[in-house]
Design goal:
The chain is an alpha+beta fold and 210 residues long. 61% of the residues lie in helices and 13% in strands. It has ten helices and four strands; from the N terminus they run αααααααβααβββα. It has a four-stranded mixed sheet, sandwiched between helices. β3 and β4 form a beta hairpin. α2 packs antiparallel against α6 and α5 packs antiparallel against α6. The longest helix is centred in the N-terminal third of the chain and has 20 residues. The radius of gyration is 19 Å and the shape is globular. The two termini are 33 Å apart.
């Protein structure tokens, strides 16, 4: 049932698009252009750094709170970024590049550190497009069974979007708030087959009827 619904949805991919912050997109494009203008190797290094920073922020509650707080002083923001850089360097202690530091310096100065995850997501999409990769994130309330994951992969590979890509990478993200069903994100498109989406639509209808 779920796969048949998904197969139908892939026939009209233009109907669903992810709500991406235009502010985050501007920063994503700026850091992408700056890194690529140096060299493809620099682009890869910056991507590695940004993904490490993204993981650190997700894993450390204090750092997640830090980037979400626009009221911090310049001194506190500088100290917080130093901690993020140190954590992102990991055991290898390879210094974070100037391009990455400049990005976060500008985000900090403009009070946009809260856009960090969106900026990194947008950057990864640009890099994937540059490399001819199609990254698909399937979000479900619980981990997808292997057989269902395989069937979804088969359907995705048959889509026009996937056939235009050089490679296809599929990952499963668990988010209990979707309640059931799945949400599939790739590029700037989204297919929402989640139970939570249906509940929200029902709530909207009920509210309009009152």
């Amino acid at each position: 049932m779920l796969c048949s619904s998904f197969r139908s949805a892939t026939a009209s991919l233009g109907l669903g698009r992810r709500a991406v912050s235009t502010i985050a997109q501007k920063y994503s494009k700026a850091v992408y252009s700056a890194a690529l203008s140096k060299s493809p190797q620099t682009l890869t290094k910056v991507q590695s750094e940004l993904n490490a920073i993204s993981n650190v922020i997700k894993e450390v509650p204090d750092l997640k709170a830090f980037v979400s707080n626009p009221t911090l002083s310049a001194k506190d923001r500088s100290a917080g970024l130093a901690v993020i850089y140190s954590r992102a360097e990991g055991s290898k202690k390879e210094p974070v590049s100037d391009i990455t530091k400049n990005l976060f310096g500008v985000l900090s100065e403009n009070g946009r550190l809260g856009e960090t995850q969106g900026v990194i997501e947008g950057f990864n999409e640009l890099v994937a497009k540059y490399k001819g990769e199609l990254e698909v994130v399937v979000t479900s309330a619980t981990p997808l069974p292997r057989d269902l994951s395989s069937r979804l992969e088969t359907i995705l590979k048959q889509s026009q979007t996937a056939q235009q890509a050089k490679s296809l990478k599929i990952s499963n993200k668990v988010n209990p708030s979707v309640l059931g069903g799945i949400v599939v994100d790739f590029g700037d498109k989204s297919i929402d087959l989640s139970v939570s989406s249906r509940v929200n639509k029902l709530n909207n209808i009920l509210q309009q009827s009152v």
